[in-house]
């Protein structure tokens, strides 16, 4: 079994820029009457991004609910990522990591390779 894709919802088209800063590039898109689905790829990872300005607000505290907790991406150097990051910590295996949020508040973990 392998990972096929990760699906996220963003409320504005310009929020795709957050994922572009992480290296993702648009591969294709499908416009529907109620949203736009944008497929973005980077190094074999596929994001299926639903651009939906009318999507209901996320329930607060998604970490305490069932379902997706966060999405994690590996980066070469945490200090060179062009997004706002929290404090840098070290995990159980000695890898440096931090958390940030996309423009809609989805938790994003960044791990240094």
What is the count of β-strands? Answer: 8
Question: What is the chain-wise order of helices and strands?
Answer: EHEEEEEEE
What would you call the structural class?
mainly beta
Low-confidence stretches: 62-66
**How far do the termini sit from each other?**
23 Å
Q: In words, what does this structure look like?
A:
The protein is mostly beta strands. The chain contains 1 helix and 8 strands. The protein has one helix at about 15-20, and strands at about 5-10, 25-30, 35-40, 45-50, 70-75, 90, 95-100, 105-110. The strands form 2 sheets. A 4-stranded mixed beta sheet has the order 1-4-3-2. Strands 5-8-7-6 form a 4-stranded mixed beta sheet, with no helix packed on it. The radius of gyration is 14 Å and the shape is globular. The two termini are about 25 Å apart. Residues about 60-65 have low confidence and may be disordered.
How are the secondary structure elements laid out?
Layout: E1 6-10, H1 16-21, E2 25-31, E3 36-42, E4 45-51, E5 71-75, E6 89-90, E7 96-101, E8 107-112
Parallel strand pairs: 1-4, 5-8
Antiparallel strand pairs: 2-3, 3-4, 6-7, 7-8
């Amino acid at each position: 079994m392998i990972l096929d894709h990760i699906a996220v919802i963003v409320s504005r088209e310009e929020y795709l820029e957050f994922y572009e800063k992480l290296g993702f590039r648009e591969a294709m898109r499908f416009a529907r009457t109620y949203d736009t689905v944008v497929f973005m790829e980077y190094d074999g990872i596929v994001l299926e991004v639903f651009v939906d300005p009318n999507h209901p607000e996320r329930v607060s505290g998604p970490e305490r609910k069932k379902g997706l907790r966060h999405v994690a991406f590996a980066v070469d150097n945490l200090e060179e990522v062009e997004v706002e990051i929290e404090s840098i910590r070290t995990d159980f295996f000695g890898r440096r990591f931090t958390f940030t949020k996309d423009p809609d508040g989805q938790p994003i973990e960044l791990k240094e390779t």
